[in-house]
Design a protein that fits this description.
WalR-like; about 15% strand; DNA-binding; about 240 residues; Rossmann fold; alpha/beta; two-stranded antiparallel ribbon; globular; about 45% helix; 7 strands; 2 domains; DNA binding; Sig_transdc_resp-reg_receiver; transcription regulation
Length: about 240
């Protein structure tokens, strides 16, 4: 399956560099480029890409607002999910920026971004991130996840209005799923979860997929937030 990508950055050179690298990669295809946040939103609506690589600082509408509109739009979701009745297309947003301050990090997460990257990363790492996010799996490294979400959870509720809804409950999941959710919240990868629970990696992935469906979570980052909000992981852990 080809991962369809939209590039949103106000610097043409950045878009060109990414487009040329992606063009040489099997399974990845650039289906559009945007120089502003508004253009990115329009392209996402028109092309229904799997992933949008989004800059933060752009003229007019910034990348955080564009991310919010894309991820909360009428067809919001992100990897195509199939259930017994319908298919829902999912568009993930990766924020790629030169700014790595906390306001940008939290703003991107609260807007619904599936990941946060900085532009000094190797191009190969950015390509890997696009593939990972397109599958609905986690993007942030465990250590980054723990730092970001611990601080996120410690902020007053009024400071995080767009976090995962506090009304979401974990009451409908099994005991084993609660264990897996707690480990996801602690920043463990599927391989680490498998080792901790003495199960196969495939089984760990299955549990994570079930949690995404049962908790109506867009991606792994949202599962981490739910784990903290539900008290399965203490913010000081």
């Amino acid at each position: 399956m080809t991962v369809r990508v939209v590039l949103a950055d106000d610097q043409p050179l950045v878009r060109t560099a990414l487009r040329l690298v992606i063009a040489d990669e099997a399974g990845l295809e650039v289906v559009g480029e945007a120089g502003t946040g508004a253009e990115a939103v329009a392209l996402a609506e028109k092309e229904r890409p799997d992933v949008v690589v989004m800059d933060i600082r752009m003229p007019g509408m910034d990348g955080i607002e564009a991310t919010r509109l894309i991820t909360r739009g009428p067809d919001a979701g992100h990897v195509t999910r199939v259930d017994a009745t319908h298919v829902t297309h999912v568009t993930h947003v990766i924020v790629l920026t030169t700014f790595d301050d906390d306001d940008c990090l939290y703003g991107a997460l609260r807007a619904g971004a599936a990941g946060f990257l900085v532009k000094d990363m190797a191009l190969e790492d950015i390509l890997d991130a696009i593939r990972v996010v397109a599958t609905g799996d986690g993007l942030l490294a465990p250590s980054v996840t723990r730092r970001l979400i611990r601080d996120f959870a410690d902020r007053p509720a009024s400071a995080t209005p767009d976090a995962a809804p506090s009304a979401r409950t974990v009451g409908g999941i099994t005991g084993r799923e609660r264990e897996v959710l707690a480990l996801v919240g602690a920043g463990l990868s599927n391989t680490e979860i498998a080792e901790r629970l003495s199960i196969s990696v495939a089984t760990a992935k299955t549990y994570v997929s079930r949690l995404l469906t049962k908790l109506d979570a867009r991606d792994r980052v949202r599962l981490v937030i739910i784990a903290y909000e539900s008290g399965l992981v203490a913010s000081g852990r």
